Amino acid sequence: MFGVIDLPTYLAGVALIVLLPGPNSLYVLSVGARRGVRTGYKAAAG
Question: How many CA atoms lie within 13 A of 18 on its CB side?
Fold first, then answer.
């Protein structure tokens, strides 16, 4: 059975994966940069 052997390394890896920008965040950043903050918030909301 597999388990977490080194908890700090696991937590650092999880934080790294969560903080990596994905396609959605890049879309929101590009819309916000082109059309303004309010439109960026609308793009983030869907």
Answer: 6
Residue ranges per structural domain of the chain: 21-46
Task: Please report, for residues 6, 14, 15, 21, 29, the alpha-carbon distance to residue 26 in angstroms, rounded to integers and kept in the order given.
Answer: 32, 20, 18, 7, 5
pTM assigned to the model: 0.53
Alpha carbons 13 and 22: distance in angstroms, whole number? 16
In this prediction, residue 27 carries a pLDDT of 92
What local confidence, expressed as pLDDT, does residue 20 receive?
86
| Proportion of the chain above pLDDT 70, given as a percent | 96
The tokens for 22 are 């994905």
